[in-house]
UniProtKB/TrEMBL annotation, chain A:
Stretches assigned to the Toprim domain: 79-174
Species the sequence originates in: Phytohabitans aurantiacus
Name of the protein in question: Recombination protein RecR
PROSITE patterns the record matches: RECR (PS01300), TOPRIM (PS50880)
Keywords from the named record: DNA damage, DNA recombination, DNA repair, Metal-binding, Zinc, Zinc-finger
Zinc finger (C4-type): 56-71
Family: Belongs to the RecR family.
Signal peptide (UniProt feature, chain positions): none
Domain of life: Bacteria
Function of the protein: May play a role in DNA repair. It seems to be involved in an RecBC-independent recombinational process of DNA repair. It may act with RecF and RecO.
UniProtKB/TrEMBL annotation, chain B:
CDD domains to which the protein is assigned, alphabetical: ABC_RecF (cd03242)
The protein's role, per its UniProt record: The RecF protein is involved in DNA metabolism; it is required for DNA replication and normal SOS inducibility. RecF binds preferentially to single-stranded, linear DNA. It also seems to bind ATP.
Descriptive protein name: DNA replication and repair protein RecF
Gene that this polypeptide is encoded by: recF
InterPro entries, A to Z: DNA-binding_RecF (IPR001238), DNA-binding_RecF_CS (IPR018078), P-loop_NTPase (IPR027417), RecF/RecN/SMC_N (IPR003395), RecF_2 (IPR042174)
Organism: Phytohabitans aurantiacus
Length: 197, 375
């Protein structure tokens, strides 16, 4: 245990995801010995992120104004909507450059073990958006795990009666790798999902 | 397939031990508590990445050491493969295959195929249904690794569904309305039926292939004292491993059980509630069979697994930990006949005379200090 401010800093850092007690201590002492200007910059960045960043009123992605960059972009199609769990998933899909529609960020997935139900996600907001009638296709891009699949099924069950086409991202082999390095589970699923060429 | 060499560093009671094996039979003899089973356990760990004795890795590391190392040279089809595992409790294990690091420890699965019979296996016959489900699922994954994913998915769905039911149950009990939301239960039902059908169909196919081997193995060990029969007891009415039909049956059963599930706050339908029925003649082995019969039955289950894996084309290593002391002379001799042809057979015992003459091949003396080959 250290005294006063340094221990407070270690405790705070230790609460961050992926930071253990040893790492927290290392970061704390790094900050202590760093240039005051650098530390001020970090402190300002931390403060600003809470003050300035908010969630887009339409898609609930992180934004610096009322609407995010993607929702403001007039060149994007309003007919295709991609549902993701987190803002970082938007960034991942944007990196592909393939998708020119809009997004909807749920803010997580249905997870009863952690007490997350549909009411804790932005599913009601999604239904209101779809009710406006411009969306023709809904792409469900939740994670390919138990919780993501359940969320996708839940949304699909609600949306199908509205006459909107609902699709789900495919799962299978990573591109550019060797077949021999794929694990049995992924390879097994890719076999199940094989298609005619 | 056979294990040519086993090296242990800081594993259980051993600071360091090296043993060279040969194909065919080997008998490890030593007094109680000197570490015979530790050697067998290490081999089991290489084959399954888990111990057959404990659920966590901490007891595997020698007191005072940070990590344990298992090094194992396996010969298959004339080629030697070196597998090295470092067990670090509380952290991911590190693995090397043929001197180069593996990306995941899981990659070593399949390098060593092993069927292990240990005294703990008595629970397969006398214990809870969970023991028998684990036996089936482990064998299913050993034959078809894809089922590791099916099993994990299914267990996750059951966990989530139980959490949802329990929250609703508690909310109702305390009279509150928060958390009592069961609107997603239909979704979990769909997924439970889908993954459950996959797992159940896999188990049914496995039991169909395995049951004749069980009958044969028990008959061979016990020589005509009642016939052993294995059948799968599902919680829903299913006959054939038809995935679509099972999915529908599970969905129907879930709908019927809905009110009692909500009442009790737990998932009551699905392969996690199933059992394997082990009959001996007209009676179930559990509750009716004698100690010796249970022992023979458990042995038959392992021998059947061995036969089935062998029929698939890869000859596993067979390990019999402390089995002969519990069998009468007739059963000992018949077991010796049955397993004498194994490509490699490792037997442990406290008294060398318990092992039939036919199996005595190479002898190793196990003591606290280590393992010595005796001629």
């Amino acid at each position: 245990m250290y005294e006063g401010a340094i221990q407070d800093l270690i405790d705070e850092l230790g609460r961050l995801p992926g930071v253990g007690p040893k790492s927290a201590q290392r970061i704390a002492f790094h900050i202590l010995s760093a240039d005051p200007a650098d530390v001020t910059r970090l402190a300002t960045a931390l403060r600003k992120v809470k003050e300035l960043v908010r969630f887009c009123a339409i898609c609930h992605n992180v934004a610096e104004s009322e609407q995010c960059r993607i929702c403001r972009d007039p060149r994007r199609s309003d007919e295709v909507l991609c549902v993701v769990e987190e803002p970082k998933d938007v960034v991942a899909i944007e990196r592909t450059g393939e998708f020119r529609g809009r997004y909807h960020v749920l803010g997580g997935a249905i997870n009863p073990l952690e007490g997350v139900g549909p009411d804790n996600l932005r599913i009601r907001e999604l239904m209101i958006r779809l009710g406006e009638g411009t969306v023709k296709e809904l792409i469900l891009a939740t994670d390919p795990n138990t919780e993501g699949e359940a969320t996708a099924t839940y949304i699909a069950l609600m949306v199908k009666p509205m006459g909107i086409s609902v699709t789900r991202l495919a799962s299978g082999l990573p591109v550019g790798g060797d077949l021999e390095y794929a694990d049995e589970i992924t390879l097994g699923r890719a076999f199940e999902g094989r298609r005619a060429v | 397939m056979y294990v040519r060499r086993l090296e242990l560093v800081n594993f259980r009671s051993y600071e360091r031990v090296e043993v060279d094996f040969e194909p065919g039979g080997s008998v490890l003899v030593g007094a109680n508590g000197v570490g015979k089973t530790n050697l067998v356990e290490a081999l089991g760990y290489v084959a399954t990445l888990g111990s057959h004795r404990v659920a966590t890795d901490a007891p595997l590391v020698r007191a005072g050491a940070d990590s344990a190392v298992i090094r194992c040279a396996i010969v298959h089809d004339g080629r030697e493969l070196l597998v090295e595992l470092e067990i670090v409790p509380g952290r991911a294990n590190r693995a090397r295959i043929g001197r180069s690091p593996a990306r995941r420890a899981r990659d070593v699965l399949g390098a060593l195929r092993l069927v292990l019979f240990a005294p703990e296996d008595l629970e397969l016959v006398r214990g809870d249904p969970s023991e028998r489900r684990k036996y089936l699922d482990d064998l299913l994954v050993a034959r078809l690794p894809r089922y590791a994913g099916v099993r994990a998915d299914y267990e996750r769905v059951v966990k989530q569904r139980n959490a949802l039911l329990r929250t609703a149950y508690l909310a109702r009990k305390t009279g509150g309305t928060r958390g009592g939301d069961l609107s997603t239960l239909d979704v979990w039902d769909t997924h439970l039926a889908k993954h459950g059908a996959e797992l159940l169909a896999g188990r049914l196919e496995l039991v169909a292939a395995l049951a004749p081997h069980v009958t044969k193995a028990y008959d061979a060990v016990a020589a005509g004292k009642g016939a052993a029969a294995m059948t799968y007891k599902a919680s829903v009415p299913v006959e054939t491993p038809d995935r679509t039909a099972i999915e529908a049956a599970l969905a129907t059963a879930l709908a019927e059980a809905r009110s009692s599930e909500v009442e009790r706050g737990v998932t009551l339908v699905g392969p996690h509630r199933d059992d394997v029925k082990l009959m001996l003649g007209e009676l179930p082995a559990k509750g009716y069979a004698s100690h010796g019969e249970c022992w023979s039955y458990a042995l038959a289950l392992r021998l059947a697994a061995y036969d089935l894996l062998r029929a698939d084309g890869i000859e596993p290593v067979l390990v019999l930990d402390d089995v002969f002391a519990e069998l009468d002379a007739g059963r000992r001799a018949r077991l010796a006949d049955l397993v004498g042809q194994a490509s490699q057979l490792l037997v442990t015992c406290a008294v060398a005379e318990d092992v039939p003459e036919a199996l005595r091949g190479n002898r190793y003396a196990v003591s606290e200090g280590g393992v010595l080959r005796v001629q």
